[in-house]
Amino acid sequence: MLTAAPLFPQDRPDLKVVNRIRSEEFEHSQVMDTLQMLTDRYGPRLTASPEYLEAVHWAEGRLKEYGLENVKLEKWPFGRSWSLKEFSLEMVEPRYASLTAAPLAWSEGTKGAVTGEAVLAVLGTGRMRYNLKANQQDIDKYEAKWKGQLRGKVVLISKMTEPKPWAAAPFTRYDEKQLAEMGKAPEPSPKVKVDVNNIEIPDDPDEARAYIRSLPESVFEDLFDKYQDQRAKFLEFMKNEGVAGVIQADGRAHAGMVFAESAGSYKSKYPLAPPTFVVTAEQYNRMARLIEKKTPVKVRLSLKAEASSGDIDSYNITGEIPGGAKKDELVMVGAHFDSWHSGTGATDNGAGSAVMIEVMRILKALDLKMDRTVRIALWSGEEQGLLGSKAYVKEHFGDPKTMKVTEAHAKLSGYFNLDNGTGKIRGVYLQGNDAMRPVFEQWLAPFRDLGVSEISIRNTGGTDHLSFDAVGLPGFQFIQDPMDYGTVTHHSDMDTYDHIQAGDEMQAAAVIASLVYDAAMRPEMLPRKELPKPQEEPKGKMESRAAAASSGR
Questions:
Q1: How many Å is the maximal CA-CA distance in the chain?
Q2: Rounded-to-integer distance, Cα 332 and Cα 378, Å
Q3: Which CATH number is 82-307's, of 3.50.30.30, 1.10.8.60, 3.10.50.40, 3.40.50.2000?
Q4: Which CATH code fits 34-80+311-424+462-526?
Q5: Is 216:536 a contact under the CB 8 Å cutoff?
Q6: What is the pTM of this model?
Q7: How far apart are CA 137 and CA 139, in angstroms?
Q8: What digits encode the pLDDT tens for the residues 404-460?
């Protein structure tokens, strides 16, 4: 009888409340309406852009409409804004072709349409990488070879890239075997020395992302800062040479797709990049082959973009449902609200933002009386390095560099994050917090019929729960079906409303609303890991444990 009794009876979910939550979401859902507005009307949402601010004010009104209190915008210092107004890219010789392209963020605009001869001037392996030493060698060779030869030219800077064949289905859900494998603890591995100045990262984009995910956040920050400095100096060389524009291909692309992030830096201390575009592999290869065959190629480009002259603030959005008996204690949910600019920011991460807004709507619509206050936060600057959530955590809870924490640190029970596209929730990553396993086992049990089954001890990276985990607060990201997130939509022009599965959004909203209610009503705060040690400022060499991780930077 003792073995049959639950070990933690206080964590039994209230099945009547679970049923009410499921009924409210499955019969009266507004999540897709919210998402449609965030994408079709207010997407994309590049951090600190006028478009982002428009979307912020709409979301602010939505939260107030749902009855949340203390809805406000919390500013933090970002960098330079950048807003795309219009663009075109065309091959005009030897034949006319309108090119499927996207400009890269923080590129400088042109003064009207500019026509220039295309020159194939490939940088090293065709792109800058996080291999700083190899990058510098490539840059030095490039500048020595091309100095004085690029004025007025449109520079094709990448190697030709074959469009990837679909090695597996581009649209997938986890099967039980895959979920069971995720539930296994990663194999123990020894600590390794990481020298960011001599780091060896694979050239294959997928392998490179997997390696970067294994780096501690502080190591990655140091690496990224050095990479930005290096890239800025190279861009300054290109601008001084007077290039008319830059065109690059992308190794991630399948047929007809473009992936667009940034060319220049969001930091105003760096120069804007020359007008830089990414085009489909097929069109890039055509131009490159013609140039190799000594056939002159001319390209006409136009880019109208506006950037602030200096650094400005960006904003996170917060709102609350006040608690009762323990209203000074807090349960938080969140998702990043910003996106890149070639799509409309649907799977990354309008999907997560819409779900979390819906979670708050459900809890408020049911008028559930919760002991703890529930707060939503929609973050900006995630795509530039979790900047919004880091700023928020530092201001409200603690500084991971010094590990000096605030009084509010002791009052946050936990934070739940959603940021892996449209896939339905299949479980949760414990982020190394094994004391949460029996809690989640009971809380998630009512959702087994909706496919929620796996609890993984593993860490997962690349999104805003890390900002909370860095100061010892329970922060969790969910296991989600991959769908076409990693193959098609992530940072691509295909990141649109059409790639969202309504049933997945509704399932996620019901699951998270139930967990939030459970956390808000739990007699005790959620169990925590030990407070991390203060982070030392990286000085080149850091120790890293090559841990398995899921979502990517």
A1: 84
A2: 11
A3: 3.50.30.30
A4: 3.40.630.10
A5: no
A6: 0.93
A7: 5
A8: 999 999 999 999 999 999 999 999 999 999 999 999 999 999 999 999 999 999 999
